[in-house]
Design goal:
Strand 7, helix 9 and strand 8 form a beta-alpha-beta unit. The N and C termini lie far apart (72 Å). The chain has helices at residues 14-21, 25-35, 52-66, 71-79, 111-121, 125-139, 141-162, 168-184, 213-224, 238-248, 265-272, 308-321; strands at residues 41-42, 48-49, 94-95, 99-100, 103-104, 109-110, 201-205, 229-233, 252-256, 286-290. It is built from twelve helices and ten strands. With 322 residues, the chain is α/β, with parallel strands linked by helices. The strands form four sheets. Strands 8-7-9-10 form a four-stranded parallel sheet, sandwiched between helices.
């Protein structure tokens, strides 16, 4: 009989149960060794069988850890049949860094980061989507982005960089769901711009830059402030940027550069000098630099907000003044 079709009489092997739960076999062995969550009946030799009662405990363990409950607490609750997160000590939702689902979360992080990381490592798409939606609803868009999405994305990126291609699927899945959550949080644009009102904020990655998620977060945040935007996304050529400025007359242009190699101050100054409007009343847009690629590069007259909240305040003020 194969692992995937083992009967209740013999139980499931560790490999079959791992596939059923969407976790690694080593995770099940680690939980057994550390927390005593193992099969009640062991077969001959090295092969172990998991009975229905054992599986129910593991399913509860997975639900709890996905919700962000520390493994030790989740194990106690699962074995007691609680099936819900235990009461936590008073004092907030942050904890010191620890390995979460194999991902190193540096610094103080929100409780939700650990559950999101575990769900992403298990490639549990429904759990990832649900936790992202709950984070936006519970904390608001700005806090959800800065304190839940970004730390988890950075942890996945660090793990991917140090492990070759082992975690590329985790990074792609998490990024796709973060993008989906941000677009769902974006309010629909008005049918048309108000005649005579300020122009939109143009959002674009510089040439060669593919990291669009920060701009998607900014786009969602501006929509909630009723600031019109035009989202152009990844790797916008310099000629296209100039043409868009001349056609749209934006009050501001945000240029995102993740890497120093793509952050061109010459391009930023070129965009800032691009004129639009009728002769005698031509205007130029404010240019705002976004992303770590611009760090350490003096750019007088070109503000560089360092967080989503700062960028929203800066752009809202520019729009109101426009």
């Amino acid at each position: 009989m194969s692992e995937s079709t083992a009967s209740d009489d013999t139980g499931l092997t560790t490999g079959a149960l791992a596939r059923r739960l969407g976790v690694a076999p080593t995770t099940l062995r680690s939980w057994d060794r550390r927390y005593g969550i193992g099969p009640a009946v062991r077969g001959d030799g090295r092969h172990r069988r998991w009975r229905p009662d054992d599986v129910a405990v593991l399913e509860a363990m997975c639900r709890l850890t996905s919700a962000g409950v520390p493994p030790a607490e989740a194990a106690r609750a699962a074995k007691e049949g609680a099936g819900a997160p235990p009461v936590r000590p008073a004092g907030g939702v942050r904890e010191r860094p620890r390995e979460t689902g194999g991902l190193p979360l540096g610094g103080d992080v929100r409780q939700e980061c650990r559950g999101l990381a575990r769900a992403a490592v298990r490639l549990d798409a429904p759990a990832v989507a649900e936790q992202l939606t709950q984070a936006v609803e519970r904390h608001g868009l700005t806090a959800a982005w800065q304190e839940v999405m970004v730390p988890t994305l950075h942890a996945v990126g660090r793990k991917w960089a140090s492990s070759g291609d082992r975690y590329v699927e985790v990074e792609h899945l998490l990024s796709w769901h973060v993008s989906t959550a941000l677009r769902r949080a974006t309010r629909p644009a008005a049918p048309g711009d108000v005649t005579g009102g300020p122009g939109p904020v143009l959002l674009a990655c510089v040439p060669g830059e593919q990291h669009t998620l920060p701009l998607e977060a900014l786009n969602a945040g501006l929509s909630r402030l009723d600031v019109p935007t035009r989202m152009f996304g990844a790797a916008v050529p310099a000629e296209a940027l100039s043409a868009a400025v001349q056609r749209l007359g934006p009050v501001a242009v945000v240029l995102w550069a993740q890497a120093r190699s793509t952050a061109s101050l010459a391009l930023a100054r070129h965009v800032a000098a691009t004129r639009w409007g009728v002769r005698g009343a031509r205007r130029t847009p404010s240019v705002v630099l976004g992303g770590p690629g611009w760090a350490g590069r003096p750019a007088p007259g070109l503000p560089r907000p360092t967080a989503l909240g700062d960028a929203l305040e800066t752009l809202a003020a520019v729009h109101d003044a426009g």
